[in-house]
UniProtKB/TrEMBL annotation, chains B, D:
It comes from the Archaea. SUPFAM superfamilies: Trm112p-like (SSF158997). It comes from Natronomonas salsuginis. Pfam families: Trm112p. InterPro entries: Trm112-like (IPR005651). This is Trm112 family protein.
Length: 227, 64, 227, 64
Protein backbone atom coordinates (compact mmCIF):
# COMPACT_ATOMS: atom_id res chain seq x y z
CA UNK A 1 0.00 0.00 0.00
CA UNK A 2 1.26 3.33 -1.24
CA UNK A 3 0.18 5.32 1.82
CA UNK A 4 1.90 2.96 4.25
CA UNK A 5 5.16 2.99 2.29
CA UNK A 6 5.20 6.76 2.02
CA UNK A 7 4.03 7.71 5.50
CA UNK A 8 5.67 4.93 7.51
CA UNK A 9 9.01 6.44 6.59
CA UNK A 10 7.75 9.88 7.64
CA UNK A 11 6.74 8.44 11.00
CA UNK A 12 10.09 6.71 11.40
CA UNK A 13 11.89 10.00 10.75
CA UNK A 14 9.80 11.77 13.41
CA UNK A 15 7.94 13.84 10.86
CA UNK A 16 4.68 12.98 12.65
CA UNK A 17 5.69 15.21 15.57
CA UNK A 18 7.11 17.82 13.21
CA UNK A 19 3.79 18.01 11.37
CA UNK A 20 1.90 18.19 14.65
CA UNK A 21 3.94 21.21 15.68
CA UNK A 22 3.54 23.06 12.39
CA UNK A 23 -0.08 22.11 11.74
CA UNK A 24 -1.08 23.08 15.27
CA UNK A 25 -0.67 26.77 14.34
CA UNK A 26 -3.90 26.59 12.35
CA UNK A 27 -5.40 23.26 13.48
CA UNK A 28 -6.05 24.63 16.96
CA UNK A 29 -8.26 27.36 15.49
CA UNK A 30 -10.08 24.85 13.34
CA UNK A 31 -10.70 22.57 16.34
CA UNK A 32 -11.91 25.53 18.42
CA UNK A 33 -14.67 26.27 15.85
CA UNK A 34 -16.04 22.71 15.87
CA UNK A 35 -19.37 22.35 17.71
CA UNK A 36 -18.20 19.30 19.67
CA UNK A 37 -20.35 18.77 22.77
CA UNK A 38 -19.28 16.74 25.81
CA UNK A 39 -19.58 13.01 25.12
CA UNK A 40 -19.77 13.29 21.34
CA UNK A 41 -17.95 10.87 19.04
CA UNK A 42 -15.20 12.25 16.81
CA UNK A 43 -13.33 10.67 13.91
CA UNK A 44 -9.94 12.04 12.78
CA UNK A 45 -9.06 11.08 9.21
CA UNK A 46 -5.31 10.76 8.62
CA UNK A 47 -4.67 11.23 12.32
CA UNK A 48 -0.85 11.28 12.14
CA UNK A 49 0.40 11.72 15.72
CA UNK A 50 -3.22 11.82 17.00
CA UNK A 51 -2.90 15.31 18.53
CA UNK A 52 -6.34 16.51 17.38
CA UNK A 53 -8.21 13.85 19.33
CA UNK A 54 -6.12 14.37 22.46
CA UNK A 55 -6.94 18.09 22.28
CA UNK A 56 -10.68 17.53 21.78
CA UNK A 57 -10.76 15.12 24.71
CA UNK A 58 -8.93 17.55 26.99
CA UNK A 59 -10.56 20.81 26.03
CA UNK A 60 -14.07 19.74 24.99
CA UNK A 61 -14.67 16.47 26.85
CA UNK A 62 -15.32 14.68 23.57
CA UNK A 63 -16.54 11.11 24.05
CA UNK A 64 -15.25 8.17 22.02
CA UNK A 65 -12.57 9.27 19.58
CA UNK A 66 -11.19 7.38 16.61
CA UNK A 67 -7.98 8.12 14.76
CA UNK A 68 -7.87 6.47 11.35
CA UNK A 69 -4.70 6.25 9.31
CA UNK A 70 -3.32 4.09 6.54
CA UNK A 71 0.26 4.01 7.84
CA UNK A 72 0.94 1.51 10.66
CA UNK A 73 4.00 3.38 11.98
CA UNK A 74 1.97 6.56 12.35
CA UNK A 75 -0.61 4.58 14.32
CA UNK A 76 1.98 2.92 16.53
CA UNK A 77 3.48 6.30 17.41
CA UNK A 78 0.06 7.88 17.96
CA UNK A 79 -0.87 5.06 20.31
CA UNK A 80 2.37 5.56 22.23
CA UNK A 81 1.70 9.27 22.64
CA UNK A 82 -1.85 8.67 23.92
CA UNK A 83 -2.82 7.69 27.45
CA UNK A 84 -6.61 7.78 27.20
CA UNK A 85 -8.97 4.81 27.06
CA UNK A 86 -11.55 6.76 25.08
CA UNK A 87 -9.19 7.21 22.10
CA UNK A 88 -8.69 4.31 19.72
CA UNK A 89 -6.54 4.06 16.61
CA UNK A 90 -7.61 2.15 13.53
CA UNK A 91 -5.82 1.28 10.33
CA UNK A 92 -8.05 1.90 7.34
CA UNK A 93 -8.45 3.75 4.07
CA UNK A 94 -10.32 7.01 3.44
CA UNK A 95 -12.33 5.46 0.60
CA UNK A 96 -13.73 2.53 2.61
CA UNK A 97 -14.38 3.75 6.15
CA UNK A 98 -14.82 0.92 8.67
CA UNK A 99 -17.46 2.78 10.71
CA UNK A 100 -21.17 2.10 10.95
CA UNK A 101 -23.65 4.38 9.18
CA UNK A 102 -24.79 7.29 11.41
CA UNK A 103 -22.27 6.45 14.13
CA UNK A 104 -20.12 9.59 14.32
CA UNK A 105 -20.95 13.15 15.47
CA UNK A 106 -18.03 14.98 13.89
CA UNK A 107 -15.21 14.27 11.47
CA UNK A 108 -11.97 16.26 11.49
CA UNK A 109 -9.16 16.04 8.99
CA UNK A 110 -5.99 18.13 8.82
CA UNK A 111 -3.62 18.03 5.85
CA UNK A 112 -4.73 14.56 4.82
CA UNK A 113 -7.96 14.65 2.79
CA UNK A 114 -6.28 15.33 -0.56
CA UNK A 115 -4.35 12.04 -0.37
CA UNK A 116 -7.62 10.13 -0.89
CA UNK A 117 -7.52 8.07 -4.07
CA UNK A 118 -11.13 8.96 -4.78
CA UNK A 119 -11.99 12.11 -2.82
CA UNK A 120 -15.67 12.13 -3.83
CA UNK A 121 -15.97 8.56 -2.56
CA UNK A 122 -14.29 9.67 0.70
CA UNK A 123 -16.84 12.49 1.05
CA UNK A 124 -19.69 10.03 0.45
CA UNK A 125 -18.25 7.77 3.13
CA UNK A 126 -17.99 10.72 5.55
CA UNK A 127 -21.60 11.61 4.85
CA UNK A 128 -22.59 8.00 5.50
CA UNK A 129 -20.86 7.67 8.88
CA UNK A 130 -22.04 11.11 10.14
CA UNK A 131 -25.32 11.40 12.00
CA UNK A 132 -27.78 13.96 10.61
CA UNK A 133 -26.43 17.39 11.51
CA UNK A 134 -22.94 16.02 12.13
CA UNK A 135 -20.08 18.15 10.83
CA UNK A 136 -16.99 17.55 8.67
CA UNK A 137 -14.14 19.99 9.32
CA UNK A 138 -11.81 19.58 6.36
CA UNK A 139 -8.55 21.54 6.62
CA UNK A 140 -5.88 21.55 3.90
CA UNK A 141 -2.74 23.51 3.12
CA UNK A 142 -2.42 22.00 -0.37
CA UNK A 143 -5.01 23.65 -2.62
CA UNK A 144 -5.25 25.53 -5.88
CA UNK A 145 -5.20 29.09 -4.49
CA UNK A 146 -2.10 28.30 -2.44
CA UNK A 147 0.31 28.49 -5.35
CA UNK A 148 3.20 27.99 -2.94
CA UNK A 149 1.98 24.46 -2.25
CA UNK A 150 1.88 23.32 -5.88
CA UNK A 151 5.47 22.03 -5.88
CA UNK A 152 4.77 19.63 -3.02
CA UNK A 153 3.55 17.03 -5.50
CA UNK A 154 7.12 16.66 -6.76
CA UNK A 155 8.29 15.21 -3.46
CA UNK A 156 5.67 12.56 -2.94
CA UNK A 157 4.68 9.41 -4.81
CA UNK A 158 0.96 9.61 -4.00
CA UNK A 159 -1.20 11.58 -6.41
CA UNK A 160 -2.66 14.56 -4.57
CA UNK A 161 -6.00 16.26 -5.33
CA UNK A 162 -5.56 20.00 -5.81
CA UNK A 163 -9.01 21.57 -5.64
CA UNK A 164 -9.77 25.27 -5.41
CA UNK A 165 -12.03 26.62 -2.65
CA UNK A 166 -15.10 26.59 -4.96
CA UNK A 167 -14.20 23.05 -6.08
CA UNK A 168 -14.23 21.93 -2.44
CA UNK A 169 -17.71 23.42 -2.02
CA UNK A 170 -18.96 21.77 -5.21
CA UNK A 171 -17.51 18.39 -4.27
CA UNK A 172 -19.06 18.49 -0.80
CA UNK A 173 -22.45 19.18 -2.39
CA UNK A 174 -21.94 16.49 -5.02
CA UNK A 175 -21.38 13.99 -2.21
CA UNK A 176 -24.56 15.08 -0.46
CA UNK A 177 -23.10 17.29 2.27
CA UNK A 178 -24.40 20.78 3.00
CA UNK A 179 -21.68 23.45 2.88
CA UNK A 180 -21.89 25.45 6.11
CA UNK A 181 -18.86 27.67 5.61
CA UNK A 182 -15.39 28.13 4.23
CA UNK A 183 -12.42 30.24 5.23
CA UNK A 184 -8.70 30.73 5.12
CA UNK A 185 -7.26 30.28 8.60
CA UNK A 186 -4.02 32.25 8.75
CA UNK A 187 -0.90 30.86 10.40
CA UNK A 188 0.25 33.77 12.57
CA UNK A 189 2.96 31.77 14.33
CA UNK A 190 5.39 30.44 11.74
CA UNK A 191 8.28 32.85 12.04
CA UNK A 192 8.96 34.98 9.03
CA UNK A 193 12.51 36.34 9.02
CA UNK A 194 13.50 39.89 8.30
CA UNK A 195 13.65 41.16 4.71
CA UNK A 196 17.47 40.86 4.79
CA UNK A 197 17.30 37.07 5.19
CA UNK A 198 15.69 36.60 1.76
CA UNK A 199 16.07 34.75 -0.53
CA UNK A 200 16.17 31.80 1.89
CA UNK A 201 16.58 28.18 0.86
CA UNK A 202 12.84 27.80 0.56
CA UNK A 203 11.58 31.31 -0.22
CA UNK A 204 12.56 33.69 -2.99
CA UNK A 205 10.88 36.71 -1.44
CA UNK A 206 9.52 37.66 1.95
CA UNK A 207 6.20 38.71 0.38
CA UNK A 208 5.63 35.16 -0.85
CA UNK A 209 6.19 33.74 2.60
CA UNK A 210 3.83 36.31 4.11
CA UNK A 211 1.19 35.39 1.55
CA UNK A 212 1.62 31.66 2.17
CA UNK A 213 1.32 31.85 5.96
CA UNK A 214 -0.44 35.05 6.96
CA UNK A 215 -2.94 35.30 4.11
CA UNK A 216 -3.61 31.92 2.48
CA UNK A 217 -2.89 29.73 5.50
CA UNK A 218 -5.10 26.68 5.85
CA UNK A 219 -8.24 26.29 3.74
CA UNK A 220 -11.10 25.11 5.92
CA UNK A 221 -14.33 23.81 4.40
CA UNK A 222 -17.16 22.87 6.76
CA UNK A 223 -19.73 20.30 5.69
CA UNK A 224 -22.89 19.19 7.49
CA UNK A 225 -24.67 15.87 6.98
CA UNK A 226 -28.34 16.27 5.99
CA UNK A 227 -31.17 14.48 7.75
CA UNK B 1 -8.00 -0.68 21.97
CA UNK B 2 -10.84 -0.84 24.49
CA UNK B 3 -13.56 -3.31 23.62
CA UNK B 4 -16.25 -0.58 23.92
CA UNK B 5 -14.53 1.35 21.14
CA UNK B 6 -15.00 -1.59 18.77
CA UNK B 7 -18.80 -1.11 18.81
CA UNK B 8 -19.08 1.24 15.85
CA UNK B 9 -16.42 -0.46 13.74
CA UNK B 10 -17.77 -2.36 10.75
CA UNK B 11 -16.53 -4.21 7.69
CA UNK B 12 -15.04 -1.65 5.26
CA UNK B 13 -16.44 -3.63 2.33
CA UNK B 14 -20.11 -4.30 3.11
CA UNK B 15 -20.45 -2.22 6.32
CA UNK B 16 -21.81 -5.25 8.17
CA UNK B 17 -21.17 -5.84 11.88
CA UNK B 18 -17.99 -7.51 13.08
CA UNK B 19 -17.54 -10.30 15.57
CA UNK B 20 -14.61 -10.08 17.99
CA UNK B 21 -12.25 -12.95 18.72
CA UNK B 22 -9.79 -12.10 21.47
CA UNK B 23 -6.35 -13.66 21.32
CA UNK B 24 -4.58 -11.53 23.95
CA UNK B 25 -5.82 -8.80 26.26
CA UNK B 26 -4.70 -7.07 29.45
CA UNK B 27 -6.80 -5.40 32.17
CA UNK B 28 -7.59 -2.51 29.88
CA UNK B 29 -7.83 -3.49 26.28
CA UNK B 30 -7.66 -5.98 23.46
CA UNK B 31 -4.07 -6.38 22.27
CA UNK B 32 -4.31 -9.17 19.74
CA UNK B 33 -7.36 -10.62 18.07
CA UNK B 34 -9.54 -10.82 15.05
CA UNK B 35 -12.63 -8.98 13.82
CA UNK B 36 -14.73 -11.18 11.57
CA UNK B 37 -17.42 -9.82 9.28
CA UNK B 38 -20.79 -11.38 10.13
CA UNK B 39 -21.81 -10.97 6.50
CA UNK B 40 -18.89 -11.77 4.18
CA UNK B 41 -16.69 -13.64 6.66
CA UNK B 42 -13.63 -11.48 5.91
CA UNK B 43 -11.14 -11.43 8.80
CA UNK B 44 -9.42 -8.29 10.09
CA UNK B 45 -6.49 -8.66 12.48
CA UNK B 46 -5.96 -6.68 15.69
CA UNK B 47 -2.24 -6.30 16.39
CA UNK B 48 -0.59 -4.33 19.20
CA UNK B 49 -4.02 -2.95 20.08
CA UNK B 50 -4.65 -1.57 16.60
CA UNK B 51 -7.30 -3.15 14.35
CA UNK B 52 -6.36 -3.31 10.68
CA UNK B 53 -9.53 -2.57 8.76
CA UNK B 54 -7.97 -1.88 5.40
CA UNK B 55 -9.96 -3.45 2.58
CA UNK B 56 -8.23 -6.81 1.92
CA UNK B 57 -6.93 -5.74 -1.50
CA UNK B 58 -5.05 -2.85 0.13
CA UNK B 59 -3.54 -4.94 2.89
CA UNK B 60 0.15 -5.53 2.37
CA UNK B 61 1.22 -8.86 3.81
CA UNK B 62 4.43 -7.37 5.25
CA UNK B 63 2.70 -5.22 7.86
CA UNK B 64 -0.76 -6.78 8.27
CA UNK C 1 -43.36 49.90 18.49
CA UNK C 2 -40.43 49.81 20.85
CA UNK C 3 -37.82 49.01 18.20
CA UNK C 4 -38.86 51.87 15.94
CA UNK C 5 -38.82 54.39 18.79
CA UNK C 6 -35.41 53.28 19.99
CA UNK C 7 -33.65 52.80 16.67
CA UNK C 8 -35.23 55.61 14.67
CA UNK C 9 -33.47 58.04 16.99
CA UNK C 10 -30.19 56.13 16.48
CA UNK C 11 -30.65 56.46 12.70
CA UNK C 12 -31.45 60.15 13.02
CA UNK C 13 -28.24 60.70 15.00
CA UNK C 14 -26.17 58.91 12.35
CA UNK C 15 -25.46 55.95 14.57
CA UNK C 16 -26.34 53.64 11.66
CA UNK C 17 -23.11 54.66 9.91
CA UNK C 18 -21.19 54.61 13.16
CA UNK C 19 -22.27 51.05 13.81
CA UNK C 20 -21.42 50.05 10.25
CA UNK C 21 -17.90 51.33 10.73
CA UNK C 22 -17.33 49.60 14.06
CA UNK C 23 -19.14 46.38 13.23
CA UNK C 24 -17.31 46.04 9.93
CA UNK C 25 -14.12 45.13 11.83
CA UNK C 26 -15.58 41.70 12.56
CA UNK C 27 -18.60 41.57 10.22
CA UNK C 28 -16.33 41.43 7.17
CA UNK C 29 -14.72 38.23 8.49
CA UNK C 30 -18.13 36.74 9.23
CA UNK C 31 -19.38 37.57 5.73
CA UNK C 32 -16.22 36.11 4.19
CA UNK C 33 -16.92 32.72 5.81
CA UNK C 34 -20.49 32.47 4.46
CA UNK C 35 -20.89 29.95 1.62
CA UNK C 36 -22.84 32.40 -0.56
CA UNK C 37 -22.77 31.35 -4.20
CA UNK C 38 -23.45 33.67 -7.13
CA UNK C 39 -27.17 34.30 -7.53
CA UNK C 40 -28.17 33.11 -4.07
CA UNK C 41 -30.79 34.92 -1.99
CA UNK C 42 -29.67 36.51 1.28
CA UNK C 43 -31.70 37.98 4.14
CA UNK C 44 -30.11 40.43 6.60
CA UNK C 45 -31.99 40.64 9.90
CA UNK C 46 -31.71 44.04 11.58
CA UNK C 47 -29.95 45.42 8.52
CA UNK C 48 -29.20 48.90 9.93
CA UNK C 49 -27.37 50.81 7.19
CA UNK C 50 -27.59 47.76 4.89
CA UNK C 51 -23.83 47.42 4.44
CA UNK C 52 -23.75 43.62 4.68
CA UNK C 53 -25.96 43.15 1.63
CA UNK C 54 -24.05 45.69 -0.42
CA UNK C 55 -20.85 43.82 0.41
CA UNK C 56 -22.27 40.40 -0.49
CA UNK C 57 -23.56 41.75 -3.80
CA UNK C 58 -20.22 43.31 -4.67
CA UNK C 59 -17.84 40.60 -3.51
CA UNK C 60 -19.88 37.42 -3.98
CA UNK C 61 -22.42 38.28 -6.67
CA UNK C 62 -25.27 37.38 -4.33
CA UNK C 63 -28.67 37.39 -6.05
CA UNK C 64 -31.78 38.92 -4.52
CA UNK C 65 -31.01 40.49 -1.15
CA UNK C 66 -33.44 41.57 1.54
CA UNK C 67 -32.69 43.85 4.45
CA UNK C 68 -35.31 43.60 7.19
CA UNK C 69 -35.53 46.09 10.02
CA UNK C 70 -38.15 47.31 12.45
CA UNK C 71 -37.07 50.94 12.40
CA UNK C 72 -38.33 53.00 9.42
CA UNK C 73 -35.57 55.61 9.69
CA UNK C 74 -32.92 52.90 9.48
CA UNK C 75 -34.61 51.59 6.35
CA UNK C 76 -34.93 55.01 4.75
CA UNK C 77 -31.23 55.64 5.28
CA UNK C 78 -30.27 52.16 4.07
CA UNK C 79 -32.31 52.70 0.90
CA UNK C 80 -30.55 56.03 0.34
CA UNK C 81 -27.11 54.43 0.67
CA UNK C 82 -27.98 51.64 -1.79
CA UNK C 83 -27.95 51.89 -5.57
CA UNK C 84 -28.71 48.32 -6.55
CA UNK C 85 -31.98 46.95 -7.93
CA UNK C 86 -31.34 43.51 -6.45
CA UNK C 87 -31.40 44.81 -2.88
CA UNK C 88 -34.76 45.55 -1.26
CA UNK C 89 -35.57 46.84 2.22
CA UNK C 90 -38.55 45.63 4.21
CA UNK C 91 -40.03 46.72 7.48
CA UNK C 92 -40.86 43.75 9.65
CA UNK C 93 -40.30 42.05 12.96
CA UNK C 94 -37.87 39.21 13.76
CA UNK C 95 -40.63 37.11 15.30
CA UNK C 96 -42.96 37.16 12.28
CA UNK C 97 -40.83 37.08 9.15
CA UNK C 98 -42.71 38.12 6.00
CA UNK C 99 -40.87 35.65 3.75
CA UNK C 100 -42.16 32.47 2.17
CA UNK C 101 -41.14 29.10 3.54
CA UNK C 102 -37.93 27.75 1.87
CA UNK C 103 -37.34 30.99 -0.01
CA UNK C 104 -33.93 32.12 1.29
CA UNK C 105 -30.44 30.60 0.86
CA UNK C 106 -28.66 32.38 3.71
CA UNK C 107 -29.55 34.59 6.65
CA UNK C 108 -27.04 37.02 8.18
CA UNK C 109 -27.49 39.06 11.31
CA UNK C 110 -24.97 41.34 13.01
CA UNK C 111 -25.55 42.83 16.46
CA UNK C 112 -29.32 42.54 16.17
CA UNK C 113 -30.54 39.04 17.01
CA UNK C 114 -30.65 39.56 20.78
CA UNK C 115 -33.25 42.33 20.41
CA UNK C 116 -35.85 39.73 19.34
CA UNK C 117 -38.76 39.65 21.77
CA UNK C 118 -38.88 35.88 21.48
CA UNK C 119 -35.53 34.65 20.18
CA UNK C 120 -36.57 30.99 19.93
CA UNK C 121 -39.53 32.07 17.79
CA UNK C 122 -37.10 34.09 15.64
CA UNK C 123 -34.89 31.02 15.19
CA UNK C 124 -37.94 28.94 14.21
CA UNK C 125 -38.88 31.60 11.66
CA UNK C 126 -35.32 31.58 10.29
CA UNK C 127 -35.44 27.81 9.98
CA UNK C 128 -38.77 28.10 8.15
CA UNK C 129 -37.62 30.64 5.54
CA UNK C 130 -34.29 28.87 4.87
CA UNK C 131 -34.08 26.21 2.20
CA UNK C 132 -32.66 22.85 3.31
CA UNK C 133 -28.92 23.34 3.78
CA UNK C 134 -29.27 27.11 3.98
CA UNK C 135 -27.15 28.81 6.64
CA UNK C 136 -27.77 31.30 9.44
CA UNK C 137 -24.74 33.39 10.39
CA UNK C 138 -25.59 34.92 13.74
CA UNK C 139 -23.05 37.44 15.04
CA UNK C 140 -23.38 39.23 18.38
CA UNK C 141 -21.19 41.39 20.61
CA UNK C 142 -23.64 41.25 23.51
CA UNK C 143 -23.38 37.82 25.13
CA UNK C 144 -22.74 36.23 28.49
CA UNK C 145 -19.00 35.60 28.14
CA UNK C 146 -18.43 39.21 27.07
CA UNK C 147 -18.71 40.65 30.56
CA UNK C 148 -17.81 44.07 29.17
CA UNK C 149 -21.11 44.14 27.26
CA UNK C 150 -23.35 43.46 30.26
CA UNK C 151 -23.81 47.16 31.10
CA UNK C 152 -25.25 47.92 27.66
CA UNK C 153 -28.70 46.92 28.89
CA UNK C 154 -28.72 50.01 31.10
CA UNK C 155 -28.77 52.34 28.11
CA UNK C 156 -31.57 50.80 26.12
CA UNK C 157 -35.29 50.34 26.73
CA UNK C 158 -35.60 47.04 24.82
CA UNK C 159 -34.99 43.89 26.82
CA UNK C 160 -31.94 42.12 25.41
CA UNK C 161 -31.29 38.37 25.45
CA UNK C 162 -27.89 37.58 26.98
CA UNK C 163 -27.08 33.98 26.09
CA UNK C 164 -23.75 32.27 26.56
CA UNK C 165 -22.05 30.46 23.66
CA UNK C 166 -23.45 27.06 24.77
CA UNK C 167 -26.91 28.63 25.19
CA UNK C 168 -26.76 29.83 21.59
CA UNK C 169 -25.95 26.29 20.45
CA UNK C 170 -28.77 24.81 22.54
CA UNK C 171 -31.30 27.38 21.31
CA UNK C 172 -30.40 26.76 17.65
CA UNK C 173 -30.96 23.04 18.20
CA UNK C 174 -34.21 23.64 20.09
CA UNK C 175 -35.49 25.59 17.08
CA UNK C 176 -34.55 22.76 14.73
CA UNK C 177 -31.33 24.15 13.26
CA UNK C 178 -28.12 22.12 13.05
CA UNK C 179 -25.14 23.82 14.70
CA UNK C 180 -22.29 23.85 12.19
CA UNK C 181 -19.78 25.88 14.17
CA UNK C 182 -19.10 28.61 16.65
CA UNK C 183 -16.23 31.00 17.22
CA UNK C 184 -15.06 34.28 18.65
CA UNK C 185 -14.06 36.59 15.82
CA UNK C 186 -11.54 39.07 17.23
CA UNK C 187 -11.65 42.76 16.38
CA UNK C 188 -8.03 43.53 15.50
CA UNK C 189 -8.76 47.05 14.27
CA UNK C 190 -10.33 49.02 17.09
CA UNK C 191 -7.43 51.09 18.35
CA UNK C 192 -6.30 50.33 21.85
CA UNK C 193 -4.32 53.23 23.36
CA UNK C 194 -1.08 52.93 25.21
CA UNK C 195 -1.03 51.82 28.86
CA UNK C 196 -0.51 55.44 29.94
CA UNK C 197 -3.92 56.48 28.58
CA UNK C 198 -5.79 54.28 31.07
CA UNK C 199 -8.17 54.59 32.81
CA UNK C 200 -10.08 56.15 29.92
CA UNK C 201 -13.66 57.33 30.10
CA UNK C 202 -14.88 53.90 29.07
CA UNK C 203 -12.15 51.53 30.22
CA UNK C 204 -10.65 51.05 33.66
CA UNK C 205 -7.70 49.00 32.47
CA UNK C 206 -5.99 48.31 29.17
CA UNK C 207 -6.21 44.55 29.79
CA UNK C 208 -10.01 44.76 29.86
CA UNK C 209 -10.09 46.54 26.52
CA UNK C 210 -7.71 44.00 25.02
CA UNK C 211 -9.93 41.18 26.27
CA UNK C 212 -13.08 42.83 24.91
CA UNK C 213 -11.75 43.41 21.40
CA UNK C 214 -8.81 41.11 20.73
CA UNK C 215 -10.01 38.02 22.59
CA UNK C 216 -13.79 37.99 23.00
CA UNK C 217 -14.70 40.03 19.94
CA UNK C 218 -17.85 38.95 18.13
CA UNK C 219 -19.52 35.64 18.96
CA UNK C 220 -20.49 33.87 15.74
CA UNK C 221 -22.83 30.89 15.77
CA UNK C 222 -23.51 29.13 12.46
CA UNK C 223 -26.75 27.22 11.96
CA UNK C 224 -27.83 25.07 9.03
CA UNK C 225 -31.43 24.27 8.10
CA UNK C 226 -32.12 20.53 7.91
CA UNK C 227 -33.81 18.88 4.94
CA UNK D 1 -38.49 48.18 -4.32
CA UNK D 2 -38.40 46.21 -7.59
CA UNK D 3 -41.52 44.18 -8.29
CA UNK D 4 -39.46 40.99 -8.75
CA UNK D 5 -38.21 41.32 -5.18
CA UNK D 6 -41.79 41.17 -3.89
CA UNK D 7 -42.11 37.53 -5.04
CA UNK D 8 -40.94 35.86 -1.84
CA UNK D 9 -42.69 38.28 0.51
CA UNK D 10 -45.67 36.85 2.35
CA UNK D 11 -48.11 37.74 5.07
CA UNK D 12 -46.23 37.80 8.41
CA UNK D 13 -49.29 36.34 10.15
CA UNK D 14 -50.40 33.35 8.08
CA UNK D 15 -47.50 33.23 5.56
CA UNK D 16 -50.00 33.30 2.67
CA UNK D 17 -49.21 34.98 -0.65
CA UNK D 18 -49.72 38.69 -1.13
CA UNK D 19 -51.41 40.54 -3.96
CA UNK D 20 -49.83 43.77 -5.15
CA UNK D 21 -51.79 46.97 -5.77
CA UNK D 22 -49.61 49.69 -7.29
CA UNK D 23 -50.37 53.30 -6.43
CA UNK D 24 -47.22 54.96 -7.74
CA UNK D 25 -44.17 53.59 -9.56
CA UNK D 26 -41.33 54.90 -11.68
CA UNK D 27 -39.31 53.16 -14.42
CA UNK D 28 -37.54 51.05 -11.88
CA UNK D 29 -39.69 50.22 -8.93
CA UNK D 30 -42.87 50.38 -6.91
CA UNK D 31 -42.88 53.52 -4.76
CA UNK D 32 -46.34 53.47 -3.21
CA UNK D 33 -48.83 50.67 -3.04
CA UNK D 34 -50.42 47.94 -1.01
CA UNK D 35 -49.76 44.26 -0.44
CA UNK D 36 -52.94 42.39 0.41
CA UNK D 37 -52.96 38.96 1.96
CA UNK D 38 -54.81 36.51 -0.28
CA UNK D 39 -55.81 34.53 2.80
CA UNK D 40 -56.72 36.88 5.66
CA UNK D 41 -57.20 40.07 3.64
CA UNK D 42 -54.83 42.09 5.84
CA UNK D 43 -53.35 45.10 4.00
CA UNK D 44 -49.68 46.10 4.17
CA UNK D 45 -48.64 49.52 2.83
CA UNK D 46 -45.66 50.22 0.58
CA UNK D 47 -44.33 53.73 1.21
CA UNK D 48 -41.27 55.38 -0.32
CA UNK D 49 -40.40 52.03 -1.89
CA UNK D 50 -40.39 50.18 1.43
CA UNK D 51 -43.11 47.64 2.23
CA UNK D 52 -44.24 47.64 5.84
CA UNK D 53 -44.82 44.03 6.77
CA UNK D 54 -44.97 44.42 10.50
CA UNK D 55 -47.73 42.36 12.04
CA UNK D 56 -50.71 44.76 12.36
CA UNK D 57 -50.56 44.82 16.17
CA UNK D 58 -46.97 46.13 16.01
CA UNK D 59 -47.71 48.82 13.45
CA UNK D 60 -47.63 52.27 14.97
CA UNK D 61 -50.02 54.59 13.18
CA UNK D 62 -47.54 57.50 13.29
CA UNK D 63 -45.05 55.95 10.87
CA UNK D 64 -47.06 53.34 8.94
N1 LIG E 1 -5.94 7.13 1.76
C1 LIG E 1 -5.57 7.22 3.03
N2 LIG E 1 -6.20 6.49 3.99
C2 LIG E 1 -5.83 6.61 5.30
N3 LIG E 1 -4.85 7.45 5.74
C3 LIG E 1 -4.19 8.18 4.82
C4 LIG E 1 -4.52 8.10 3.45
N4 LIG E 1 -3.70 8.95 2.78
C5 LIG E 1 -2.91 9.55 3.70
N5 LIG E 1 -3.20 9.08 4.94
C6 LIG E 1 -2.56 9.51 6.20
O1 LIG E 1 -2.81 10.89 6.36
C7 LIG E 1 -1.77 11.50 7.12
C8 LIG E 1 -1.38 12.80 6.44
S1 LIG E 1 -0.20 13.74 7.35
C9 LIG E 1 -1.22 14.67 8.46
C10 LIG E 1 -1.25 14.10 9.84
C11 LIG E 1 -2.02 14.90 10.90
N6 LIG E 1 -3.44 15.04 10.56
C12 LIG E 1 -1.40 16.26 11.10
O2 LIG E 1 -2.09 17.30 11.00
O3 LIG E 1 -0.20 16.35 11.40
C13 LIG E 1 -0.63 10.48 7.19
O4 LIG E 1 -0.50 10.01 8.50
C14 LIG E 1 -1.05 9.39 6.21
O5 LIG E 1 -0.64 8.11 6.60
N1 LIG F 1 -37.41 42.82 16.73
C1 LIG F 1 -36.84 43.45 15.71
N2 LIG F 1 -37.31 43.31 14.46
C2 LIG F 1 -36.71 43.94 13.42
N3 LIG F 1 -35.62 44.72 13.54
C3 LIG F 1 -35.09 44.88 14.78
C4 LIG F 1 -35.66 44.27 15.89
N4 LIG F 1 -34.93 44.61 16.98
C5 LIG F 1 -33.93 45.40 16.54
N5 LIG F 1 -34.02 45.57 15.22
C6 LIG F 1 -33.09 46.34 14.37
O1 LIG F 1 -31.80 45.75 14.48
C7 LIG F 1 -30.79 46.74 14.27
C8 LIG F 1 -29.73 46.54 15.34
S1 LIG F 1 -28.34 47.60 15.15
C9 LIG F 1 -27.31 46.66 14.02
C10 LIG F 1 -27.41 47.15 12.60
C11 LIG F 1 -26.47 46.46 11.60
N6 LIG F 1 -26.73 45.03 11.46
C12 LIG F 1 -25.01 46.68 11.94
O2 LIG F 1 -24.26 45.72 12.08
O3 LIG F 1 -24.61 47.85 12.09
C13 LIG F 1 -31.48 48.09 14.34
O4 LIG F 1 -31.48 48.69 13.05
C14 LIG F 1 -32.88 47.78 14.82
O5 LIG F 1 -33.86 48.63 14.28
Amino acid sequence: MNVATEFDSWAAEGRDRGMEERHWHTAKHVLARMPVEAGETVLDLGTGSGYALRALRETRSAGQCYGLDGAPEMLRNARDYTDDDAIGFVRGDFDALPFATDSVDHVFSMEAFYYAQNPIQTLREIRRVLRPGGTFYCAVNYYEENVHSHVWQENISIEMTRWSAPEYRDAFREAGLFVAGQENVPDTETEIPDESAFPTEEWEARAAMVERYRELGTLLTVGVAPS
Amino acid sequence: MKETLLDILCCPLDKAELELEVIREDDEEILEGRLICTECGEEYPIEDGIPNLLPPDMRDEATA
